[in-house]
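Just wondering, does anyone understand what follows?

——
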Amino acid sequence: MSKRLQTAAIFALVSVCSCVFFLAMGRDSILYRAGAVESPRKSTVKLREPATVVVAPRVTQSVKLAETRETPEADRERSFYNQGAGKTSAADPAGATPDVFPVASPDAREIVDPRYSVWARFPAGSWSRRRAESTSVENGKRIQSATETRFLLKSVDYEKKRYVLQCDTTIKMGDVDFPKRTELVEYNFWDMIADDDEREEDAGAANLMIGSRVVPCRVRRVIRESDRVREVTTIWFSPVVAPYVLQRETTRKPLDSNAKEPAVRELYVVQSAAVDSPANPAPVASEALFSRHDGSSETTGTSLRSTAIPGAVVRESDSESGPGDEESLYQTKTTLLDYYVAP
């Protein structure tokens, strides 16, 4: 083959390849315009910024907050309405307490109110059921038991300031249940067993530090006396700050100085509580510490309560120990199982 024919063949082959290439490009362009082929897009990855969560500070009991407050005296002058309460004069015979705080209800005759009771604030027919798991030590051996109790609010007498509570208790041992006899107990609106001979005294006003808040409270004493024992219960309560009864102290002393019965002191103190306000309409949950000392043993415990539950108790735990014993003699953990609020 001559060089002229070789050159012509090469030129023809290049021309055919060029035509095929441009025809293919033209087809893709037509398909792209028709929408059959998507246009190339740049892939952009955007990182999501973490959501900002605002958590309200937990209200806790803190002694340091009270000690490092810049002007602690200012809190003692502050009333429920954030106004200066003033001081009682020395000439005033009613000036037994240095601070006078106006309260939500100016009617002093309405001191005892159903709201201060963990049961009387609910309609009759409400109930709650709790399970208590106990561990005791006897002769070096641990003994465990479980008890379920259903508390039923039978009636509420708003004139006498009393209510009746029915208690149905069942002791559970393995797969066998041992029901106890049903008990009906009458209480006053301070949640104390009713006593016709008791008398109440107004102890003025006082301030309690609950977390970082100073809560002005009324103070009430309930006094009971029998032939052998004198019992005094002091109650610190607020008409406007839930859970309303913020501290309670009970002392029992034998009237006979030669009696062998030891003096008993019980103390219940709210440590923290959610703020009860229109902005926070949820039921108030509060945490409290309680203790009991009778000379021969000491019981300490914690309690979680809610104003929405009949009887208030959500969870409690306590431990009893003897003098000088490292190991607790008795432990109990109580848990709310279920409850019902009557309409």
Notes: The chain has a mean pLDDT of 74. The first strand starts at residue 127 and ends at 138. DSSP finds three helices and 14 strands in the chain.
